[in-house]
Design a protein that fits this description.
It is a single chain. Helices cover 15% and strands 20% of the residues. The protein has 60 residues and is of the alpha+beta class. The radius of gyration is 11 Å and the shape is globular.
Length: 60
C-alpha cells in the first residue's frame, strides 16, 4: 500500500519526508530541504492524522 500524497512544503516547494518519532510510536512529516527558510514539521500518533495536519493550509 502506498503512502498518502503529501502537499509540498509551503515555504520551499520541496516534497516532505516521513520519519518515525523518537519513541517509535508516532509518525513525523518534515521538510529536510537545505534551501528551506523554515524548520517545518508535524507529527501525530497515526499516519493519517499526520498527513491531514501536514496538508492543512491556512484559509485565504
Amino acid at each position: 500500500m502506498s503512502k498518502p500524497k503529501l502537499k509540498p512544503c509551503p515555504f520551499c516547494g520541496e516534497v516532505p519526508k516521513y520519519q518515525g518519532a523518537r519513541d517509535g510510536l508516532e509518525t513525523m512529516i518534515i521538510c529536510l530541504s537545505d534551501s528551506c527558510p523554515a524548520i517545518l514539521y508535524t507529527y501525530a500518533y497515526t499516519e493519517k492524522e499526520a498527513v491531514e495536519r501536514w496538508n492543512k493550509r491556512a484559509k485565504k
